[in-house]
Amino acid sequence: MKFGIMFANVMGFAQPDGAVAIGQAAEAAGFESLWTVEHVVVPAGYKSQYPYAEGGRMPGGEDAPIPDPLIWLAFVAAATSTIKLATGILILPQRNPVVTAKEVATLDHLSGGRLILGVGAGWLEEEFDVIGVPFEERGARLDEYIGAMRALWTDDKATVHGTFTSFDDAIMRPRPAQPSVPIHIGGHSTVAARRAGRLGDGFFPAKGDLPKLFSAMRDAAQEAGRDPDAIEIITGDPEVIGAKAGDAIKRLEDLGVDRVIIPPLAFGADGIHDALAQFGENVIAKFG
Question: In 10 A of CB 16, how many CB atoms?
Fold first, then answer.
């Protein structure tokens, strides 16, 4: 089992010393990956329902700092050497896919092929309104942008003609250090599961009926002529950080999970090294 840390770029880790501290502490403790979150803006008084907490509000409040995930990961890449750098997730429909493909390729190139690009459709409609992207188009944009970015990373001269993106003979350099940056689909709906089966290198549901979602992902992969077993599965389980960690990890392994994500365990530079080192000794060393 591989282990990652979610919410790596918030709270105290939004600051320079905290970012370096969590990156180096996670690497030393044996974590495989760091996972960042994204919101470009959080409109005051938003009415959209945050799907991952009771009450429908994001933790931390509307004015909590959320650094741009790609820039934050580039900063941490310079202070680490082996840990994978992941977005969990980048709200891809809000972004220009050509510019984003360039940023992602550059980060992967400079970090030696350590990037995992988690992407999702997004939930905060008011944020889409501020950026100027129609909320109802987010799923279609996500599908199209994934294909456009892969073409830019892998084709000598990329040509794409879609509803939202159109270009001919576009040359993007540098290429990613990896043959293509792995794209993991986030989301807890059947739509997200089937998108992961059709298009994803991985699937990252943060909640939901996991057996049902994994089945939907595998069915969609087979329908698309893809190997379901080649699609990585990532999720979290609060019991992984408790006394029954071994049982929780065994349960996830039986479901086909490849990577389990935990919260940082401490939310400041001062305590993060000891907290992650203890988890590394008690859990990663035994079940990793």
Answer: 13
What is the dihedral sign for C-alpha 168, 171, 176, 179?
Answer: positive
- Cα(143)–Cα(50) distance, integer angstroms: 22
CA distance 220 to 32: 28
Take residue 13 and report the two structure tokens written for it: 């880790």
Residue 239, classified by CB atoms within 10 Å of its CB into exposed (0-12), middle (13-18) or buried (19+), is: middle
**10 Å Cβ neighbour count for 288?**
14
CA distance 174 to 24: 27
Distance, CA of 64 to CA of 47 (rounded, Å): 17
Residue 46, classed as helix, strand or coil, is coil
What is the amino acid identity at position 97? P
Q: What is the pLDDT of residues 65-113, one digit of tens each?
A: 999 999 999 999 999 999 999 999 999 999 999 999 999 999 999 999 9
pTM over 0.85: yes
Q: What is the 3-state secondary structure (H, E, C) of 158-217?
A: EEEECCCCEEEEECCCCCCCCCCCCEEEECCCHHHHHHHHHHCCEEECCCCCHHHHHHHH
